[in-house]
Predict the structure.
Amino acid sequence: DAGVTQSPTHLIKTRGQQVTLRCSPKSGHDTVSWYQQALGQGPQFIFQYYEEEERQRGNFPDRFSGHQFPNYSSELNVNALLLGDSALYLCASTTGGRETQYFGPGTRLLVL
Amino acid sequence: AQSVTQPDIHITVSEGASLELRCNYSYGATPYLFWYVQSPGQGLQLLLKYFSGDTLVQGIKGFEAEFKRSQSSFNLRKPSVHWSDAAEYFCAVGPTGGGNKLTFGTGTQLKVEL
């Protein structure tokens, strides 16, 4: 049973560029959440997708957007990259609203 | 707004010694509580969770945690630490009203001396 997978594992971009990160949820899961983990910090909630719609959003600017596909996989897009966007981006999947979230290995983004 | 405090940034213990990692939360009701572990370069692995019922919960790898409502705490314990337990540990809270937004603490880095 495959767990949560994310691609790519590492990414280097320059300021002002745009980036797309991808996530495939654990088998049987239909809800995907994205978190940003800056160096030395705990993960911070970006947003959650369910039924192809954004259901909840954390305190992140509109430069952060996402999408969920009919097969429940998800993308995180970040426009106009800033140096401060450098972080580990984690995807988590679950079913329903009160179940445990399972995390993927993350995508490490470096913005130069 | 909900928040989580992990007062210990770094902890060093000897292999075989006992371990307690502290977690305090701020929330209007009884939240869902979690402990996750993160090894270098890895994602988060769930150690244990508390939703309701028995306040002492058992998890994987010999870890346990106790929910104390009066102290707003959910401390993680292990009676005998192994060198492989060296990692970063995160406490998190989730809303009982539904939804999956987890709020994490800043983490405790555990070092195990052989």
